[in-house]
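MODEL INPUT / OUTPUT PAIR
PAIR INDEX: 1
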Amino acid sequence: MGIVSPAWMWNNFRYSILIIFIIAAIVTPTTDILNMCIFAAPMILLYLVSIGVAWLVHPNRRNRGKVG
């Protein structure tokens, strides 16, 4: 859709980590740091996957592949 670029997502990676850990702290039922990290790990992985997907479907990358 071209809403965000992979470069923008990568440049703001540290802020997204902060937000992910804040969300994980709110969602975690206990005050244990290990549980918070268990909740945050899949969200961080999904964020990294989304950077990869955004890189694959970025408009500049699609335009370079066109012939003609």
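PAIR INDEX: 2
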Amino acid sequence: MRTRTREPQAARKERPPEPTVAAVVRDQRGVSWSRARDLCTQGRVTVNGERCLDPALRVSPGAAVVVDERAPKLRTGALPESAIVFSDRDVVVVDKPAGMLSVADEPGNKDTLVDWTRILLRRMGGRGSDRELGVVHRLDKETSGLMVFARTLEAKRILADQFRAHDIERVYHAIAHGTVAAKRIETHLIEDRGDGIRGSYGHFRRPRGGIPPDAKRSITHVRPIAPLAGATLVECRLETGRQHQIRIHLSEIGHPLVGERVYIRDYPGRKIESLRPMLHARVLGFAHPRTGRRVSFEREAPDDFRAMIESLRPAPLT
């Protein structure tokens, strides 16, 4: 009598998930992930004849995905009032959505957080709603989370001094590849580490002589929050705030961000697909420029970040 052995559940092959619209666009056009995402959010992609603005939407086999790069570009639209976390006559704290520039990347570009914030403040009314907003720091286009703008020249000066003195509280949540341990990372960042990208002095190439005068001391405190499948949800607390600091530091300790495009070229492990680097500026604290009182603000990560966490949560043991 023949007996049929059941294949262990762990050995069964799981059916791969259906591709996202952005993945289909990327394969069709041979473009980067960011370009594929932009084509969707700009209204230049249709699925079965209907405009699709969500690059993360999964499409079934046989769906007709059409890209028209010459179609009229949709504006991202004004910020919702809920994006204004705090506002008074001196400062405004805003929850920046991923995919929006902090400030213009070229002359005449008004599709930026600083411009949309000013429009929203004008619509909401109140004292000083027509003033220009002073920029004292930035977030990368694909990073979500808290930013502060100054509403007076004096507030801008005081906040800029705090950023230079590293007196600003900045806490980020990130999803990084692999199993990340608690670590204090201190390096000196330079514009070109030796292969054309920003990095830490002495990491890519053996250091020659002393630290270059233009290198910037950079310190990140990393703490794991939760283990995920192939990744870790981590907290990154900045002691300094340099351009791409978290992305570089995590990559250089062997744990690049999920969704990283630049600082991942040396990573040997399996890469987890994501439409953007999974980085969110969760906490922002500073001394109020008028009162001197310490204030702190916190915002949860957006839907795509939380969805990535849920998709990577380890299955419960049965």
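PAIR 2 NOTE: The radius of gyration is 22 Å.
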